[in-house]
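[agent] plan:
  1. take the single chain provided in the ticket
  2. run structure prediction with default settings
  3. attach structure tokens to the ticket
  4. add a short note for the reviewer (M.T.)
[agent] executing step 1
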Amino acid sequence: MILALTLTLASPTGAQLSGSGSYPPPATGGFAYNGFAPSLSVGASYIDPVFGQTVRRLTTDHTDDDIYARNMWWNADGTRYLHRSKNGTAFADFWDVIDVATSTVTHRGLPNGAAISAGDGGFDPVDPNALYYYASNGIHMITLATGGTWTDTLYFAPPGGASLRPLGSTLNWLDASGRYMVVRYGAEPSVRLYDRNNMAAGPYGNAIDGSNYVDSGSYIGITPDAQYLVGYDSRSGVGFGGMGQGVSWKLDHANRSVAASPNIFWSVL
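[agent] step 2 finished; step 3 output follows
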């Protein structure tokens, strides 16, 4: 599977078309649907025939990346991509940082927290040089520097030596402003919200029992506007036909609390 075909411009933008028409890919020619295959060379590019944007290959190692739903694999200014790598080992327990304009690996062999959850790490939404990974003693922050170097510091240690736990590797745990942070640790209820502008105040009230969501095979995260925590309840027998249901918790920032019970906003019908 090719994971690293990405739209790249000097100033990253989204590829889109407006209007009510239909814009199918070409049926014939060099870009014919189900016939065109991009070059296998790192850095190779082409102009998408529908969107008119440059598409550039970033990797060729076929290592699986964790790019399902969350966007923490792209840094804050869209110039870097976080690629999972083996770093000369048998396991993809490291990260490489790739410059998307050139397909160049700028930093190699960064720890990715695979012992706990490699899929829950990623870039900061505001600082383009900062990224995070899960470790046995808490959340670590890596700050990228020049010449392929970086620094690694402990950013958040769960109180009382509690164990850091995964959030499901699906949604962002930082809102778009970078102010609010979802973190999971210790006994249930284990999912908590922090205001990073006031960490000393501790977590918001009404922590969430993650066993109904993360431990049943799903996830919990935060919306970009920091108005809700959202998750998916995939416990056996829940939702239409037992196929689970989407849930959300309204956040009350004035009173530093999470809604005491979730709102069911989506279920398979």
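[agent] step 4 note for reviewer: Confidence is low (pLDDT under 50) at residues 1-11.
[agent] ticket updated
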